[in-house]
TrEMBL record:
It comes from Ceratodon purpureus (Fire moss). This is F-box protein SKIP28. InterPro entries: 4Fe4S_Fe_S_CS (IPR017900), F-box-like_dom_sf (IPR036047), F-box_LRR-repeat (IPR050648), LRR_dom_sf (IPR032675). SUPFAM superfamilies: F-box domain (SSF81383), RNI-like (SSF52047). One of its GO terms (cellular component) is cytoplasm. Gene3D superfamilies: Ribonuclease Inhibitor. It comes from the Eukaryota. PANTHER family: F-BOX PROTEIN SKIP14, MITOCHONDRIAL ATP SYNTHASE COUPLING FACTOR B.
Length: 345
């Protein structure tokens, strides 16, 4: 369940216009000088009771927005440790989140953080994340995808801390997501796997990864909860990256034959953005977004009215047009493509 703070919420007959986050986090709504209830939509003590019941279902942005609505809500949100045991920062807050703000948010769980997920949080430094890991022994899930301020060595240290404190009461790290980090060598990846697989995680290590196909830069289906680490050494180039399987029926049949399999990272095997099939020279069709499409996907997707090139569905969506309307692609309009891409390293 997710409620956009920019929409009007109607609860128990009370219309609440949740305000957008003050100056986009001003920052993150953690400014203690800003009193809760400023411009509140409610009279003191009149916060609709239903709002308290939806809190566990809201994301970070919604919680931070509601904090500013009334002092009652602010107290309820900040005082409930369970709301802060899973901290997930993604678009749009990720690019603005600073070290100090992350420390503030993580401290709300009072050392009981279980899941820390920081997607493309490019302003964060590794020392602060390491400090948070140290302060939260119960941390089981760590997602640092494309946090470019975090080195592979820092990830090693964090996993080591959690591994060494593992006990019957402390599970240690059971899930690590590090796609898009710099410097993860096959040796480092092996050390991470070894540490995470030891002792308590036997059952998880026995799980054979199911195939993941390529779909708009993401694995499809998504990496399962049981998989310890999202990346693996690419069978072709040995670089630690997401590895994709092939949707082409003849390639699928060869999945278990090491020298013939069509498995590899996005750099080793070009794949259709839409259906994940491997692209060979004859099958390639030119696109306005410079990504690969197979012939059949190219034929069905909308084309730019000027250059007659198709684009992948992600870029079509970014142009904010319907599938049937006439449009000009960014390059025909002389505009650089926006940052709509997936995480690549
Ligand atoms: Zn590769
Ligand atoms: Zn295709
Ligand atoms: Zn293939
Ligand atoms: Zn065009
Ligand atoms: Zn595209």
């Amino acid at each position: 369940m997710s409620i956009s703070p920019t929409k009007r919420l109607s609860m128990e007959g009370v219309d609440v216009e949740a305000r957008t986050i003050s100056s986009e986090l001003g920052n993150l709504g953690l400014d203690s000088s800003k009193e809760a209830g400023d411009g509140s939509s409610f009279l003191p003590g009149t916060t609709p009771e239903a709002l308290f019941y939806v809190l566990p279902y809201l994301g970070l942005k919604e919680l931070l927005t509601l904090e500013t609505v009334s002092s009652q809500l602010r107290e309820a949100i900040r005082g409930d440790v369970t709301l802060w045991q899973q901290l997930h920062v993604d678009v749009p807050l990720n690019r603005k989140l600073t070290d100090a703000e992350l420390v503030g948010l993580s401290s709300r769980s009072h050392g009981r953080l279980q899941s820390l997920s920081l997607i493309k949080c490019i302003r964060l430094s590794e020392s602060v994340i390491e400090h948070i890991v140290e302060a939260n022994p119960m941390l089981q899930k760590l997602n640092l995808s494309a946090c470019t301020g975090v080195s592979a060595e820092a990830v090693l240290r964090m996993v080591k801390i959690q591994t060494e404190r593992r006990s019957p009461h402390i599970p240690g790290l059971t899930q690590l997501r590090i796609r898009g980090l710099y410097g993860v060598t096959p040796e480092i990846l092996e050390s991470l796997q070894r540490m995470m697989q030891s002792e308590g995680n036997h059952s998880a290590s026995d799980v054979i990864p199911s195939p993941h196909y390529y779909k708009n830069g993401e694995p499809s289906p998504a990496i399962s909860e049981e998989q310890l680490i999202d990346i693996e050494a690419c069978p072709k180039c040995r670089t630690a990256r997401l590895v994709f399987d092939c949707t082409r029926p003849t390639c699928e049949q060869r999945r278990n034959i090491p020298l013939q399999q069509c498995r590899g990272c996005y750099l080793c095997i070009a794949r259709c953005e839409e259906c994940g099939v491997c692209i060979d020279g004859d099958d390639y069709e030119e696109t306005f977004c410079m990504e690969f499409l197979c012939q059949s996907c190219w034929l069905r997707l909308p084309k730019c009215s000027e250059c007659n090139r198709a684009g992948c569905s992600r870029h079509i969506e970014a142009l904010d047009i319907s599938e049937t309307s006439i449009f000009s692609c960014d390059s025909c309009q002389g505009v650089l493509p926006g940052d709509t891409g997936p995480i690549f390293d």
